[in-house]
Design brief:
Layout: E1 2-5, H1 20-28, E2 32-36, H2 47-53, E3 56-58, H3 61-67, E4 70-72, H4 79-82, E5 90-93, H5 101-110, E6 113-116, H6 131-148, E7 170-174, H7 178-189, E8 193-198, H8 201-210, E9 216-219, H9 222-229, E10 234-237, E11 263-266, E12 287-290, E13 293-296, H10 306-334, H11 337-340, E14 343-346, E15 349-350, H12 353-359, H13 366-378
Parallel strand pairs: 1-2, 1-4, 2-3, 4-5, 5-6, 7-8, 7-10, 8-9, 10-11, 11-13
Antiparallel strand pairs: 6-14, 12-13, 14-15
Helix pairs in contact: 1-2, 6-7
């Protein structure tokens, strides 16, 4: 199979869909890999490294799309990339369709198979291809919150971990999943006072045991969130409903409860954000202020540590990429019910109910959509 890796074009996005080691594995399986020139140059992955691994260096994205059967990316395709997709393509990347009607419409119109990292599951119900970036984003959320609390950034001027004789900051993490867990670990490591809210009592018990009671765990309700906002210096939004838009758990009215100069970091912004006042920002212009509260809502947060993120992502995605390349999308997806859940768009059909509900489409069952595509191909 011909596999194409275009250079990412989203603002300040330096990650790349495959490392040279990943390329080498695909070459060893008999496939051809087309890498756009300088796709990984910003993070030290030179054209020479890719060439040594067996890749062919291609000058433009247009040539990569034209020559490839499968497209491997990191971030959702931008409009100009969506328009390069054709019915014979399989796209494998993060999509986050529910809050993005424009991208969804363009992918539907492309006729391609579009598989989203973030909705692939495993036998335990976890999200193995979202997890690496969730780990990075969770840890980064605390770094960014600490910077935003600095007075020069508009924050309250509090050092996250305090110093002897001076109280540390209060960090509230809404959501006890992978992001929340790693945010809590990072915040505690810096010496902050940490509280995690979640709606799963089993998860809260697990977190309490994991940290040996060194942080507070609270069942999440509107009332408990309001209570925590009153004393919070930094709030990390770490909620996730796979494939669906994030629920708005902190309303604009709730901001009045918070101390001026406090910080909201919305890690759920890719799925529309879990704070009512959130809007997507970039690494170039990451923060804004609403009612005296600093908001950090960068939609590709792990891109800020692009080298670490690229290696972590390829470690997770490579087995799935090899499966797709070796067996083709139809066989790879239908043979694995967990991989099948990654299918979001197939030949103009939406195959995730949450996306269809959010954007007003009719949902088609994934195996049915693949069967319809196969029938058209053989007609």
């Amino acid at each position: 199979m011909y596999i194409g890796v275009p250079k990412e074009i989203k603002n300040h996005e330096y990650r790349v869909g495959l490392t040279p080691a990943g390329v080498r594995e695909l070459i060893n399986h008999g496939h051809t890999v087309l890498i756009q020139k300088d796709a990984g140059a910003a993070i030290g992955l030179s054209n020479e490294l890719y060439t040594e691994a067996g890749a062919k260096i291609i000058d433009t994205a247009e040539e990569v799309f034209a020559g490839a059967e499968m497209i491997i990316k990191v971030k959702e395709p931008q409009p100009e990339e969506c328009k390069m997709l054709k019915p014979h393509h399989t796209l494998f990347t993060y999509l986050h369709l529910a809050p993005d009607p424009t991208q969804t419409q363009l992918l539907v119109e492309s006729g391609a198979i579009c598989i989203a990292y973030e909705t692939v599951t495993d036998a335990f119900g976890a999200l193995p291809l979202l997890a690496p970036m969730s780990e990075v984003a969770g840890r980064m959320s605390i770094q960014e919150a600490a910077v935003c609390l600095e007075k020069s950034k508009g924050g309250s001027g509090i050092l996250l971990g305090g110093v002897p004789g001076v109280e540390a900051a209060n960090v509230v993490v809404i959501g006890g999943g992978v992001v929340g867990l790693h945010a809590a670990r990072m915040a505690m490591g810096l010496g902050a006072n940490v509280t995690i809210l979640d709606r799963s009592l089993a998860r809260l018990k697990q977190i309490d045991e994991l940290f040996d009671g060194r942080l507070k765990t609270i069942f999440s309700t509107a009332d408990s969130i309001e209570k925590q906002l009153r004393t919070a210096d930094a709030v990390i939004g770490a909620v996730l409903v796979p494939g669906a838009s994030a629920p708005k758990l902190v309303t604009r009215d709730m901001l009045k409860l918070m101390k001026k100069g406090s910080v909201l970091v919305d890690v759920a912004i890719d799925q529309g954000g879990c704070f009512e006042t959130s809007k997507p920002t970039t690494h170039q212009d990451p923060i804004f202020e609403v009612d005296g509260i600093i908001h950090y809502c960068v939609a590709n947060m792990p891109g800020g540590v692009a080298r670490t993120s690229t290696f972590a992502l390829t470690n997770a995605t490579l087995p799935y990429i090899l499966n797709l390349a070796d067996n083709g999308a139809h066989q790879a997806l239908t043979a694995d019910e967990h991989f099948l859940k990654g299918l979001n768009v197939c030949s103009g059909m939406i195959t995730v109910q949450a996306v269809a509900d959010a954007l007003g489409y009719k949902s088609v069952e994934p195996t049915s959509a693949l069967a319809q595509r196969e029938l058209k191909a053989t007609a």
